[in-house]
Amino acid sequence: MPDPSVPEIQDEPPQLKFLRRLVTTLTVVMIGGLVVVISLLVIRLSADGPSLPAEITLPKGVKAQAVTFGQGWIAVVTTDNKILILDPASSAVRQTIPLK
What we know:
Elements: H1 14-46, E1 64-70, E2 73-78, E3 82-86, E4 93-98
């Protein structure tokens, strides 16, 4: 008579083995994907942005609402519905575009 305190070891059914391996593989893939997403976020957010001039001088009475940096120019959207195109080196106004 077998000892009741010692459990009998039975082989797993093949479907259960497949399911266990599938779940383990899915867990590994999800952890790997999470590591990739976090590392890409860290790389993208730590990248240097455009180099800003030390000081952007706007004409008197003009307040900036938004700023866009392009290659060789800076666009400033003002609160009085104008777009000022500035030279990044001298902050001189190259062009003024009124918004309607």
